[in-house]
Amino acid sequence: MSERSAKVFVVDDDVTVCVALSRAIRTAGLQVETFGTAAECLNADRLKDADCLVLDVHLPDLSGLELQTKLTGLGLELPIVFITGRGDIPMSVRAMKAGALEFLTKPFDNQQLLDAIAQGIARCHSARQHEEKLLGLRQRYQSLTPRERQVFALVVQGLLNKQIASELGTAEKTVKIHRSQVMRKMEAASLPDLVRMAEKLAPTLP
User: Fold this and answer.
1) CA–CA gap between residue 107 and residue 43 (Å, rounded)
2) 60: Cβ–Cβ under 8 A, 6 or more apart, which residues?
3) Radius of gyration for the chain, computed over Cα atoms and rounded to the nearest angstrom
4) Are 111 and 83 in contact (CB under 8 A)?
């Protein structure tokens, strides 16, 4: 699923469940760490490295749903597979609305769990790749000079070099140079390509 073996965190206060799930998950070629409480999971320094979270709804401290809310508040949008022995429809609806992948009622088939985990890992990796690309895009934008950023903003609005020169009070020849630098630094192959980059950067642009 990736160059490194994906990592799954299991949070359940029943030791026998943790052991059984760990065995099944490792059999699928995945790394796994187990926790008995929500607090233990939250205190794990490696939480950001998890690719999927298998989470019991009923825990001795925070509930699984409360932990889901806390993780979201921390900016950790981890794919979550909920498991429970005492689930109900309102509970499952709440979990799914908050972004859970699956809500499995014990006892469940291991393959159901592994299929849900695989889906979660795929989603997690896709999100990380998107974030890496966006980070690279932001870094390229930060490499632009203040004047190049001005030209960038006007170019993606569809203004011609002559119009940009008038807007900025500079020579058209100077605008052409800046425009060329913008295309090179942003690694844009065409104007439409640059416009798409601007759309992705929009939340961070002034």
Assistant:
1) 29
2) 13, 36, 37
3) 24
4) no
Instruction: Fill in the amino acid letter for 106.
Output: K
Q: What angle do CA 23, 29, 35 make, to 5 degrees?
A: 45
> Tokens representing 72?
């979201």
Give the rounded percent of residues in the chain with a pLDDT score beyond 90. 60
Measure Cα distances from 84 to 101, 179, 180 in Å.
14, 58, 58
- Cα–Cα distance list, 112 to 34, 104, 175 (Å): 19, 8, 59
Examine the pLDDT at 134 and tell me if it is beyond 70: yes
Amino acid at 62: L
For residue 84, what are the β-bridge partners?
105
**Helices 172-186 and 110-142 meet at what angle, rounded to 10?**
150
pTM of the predicted protein model: 0.71
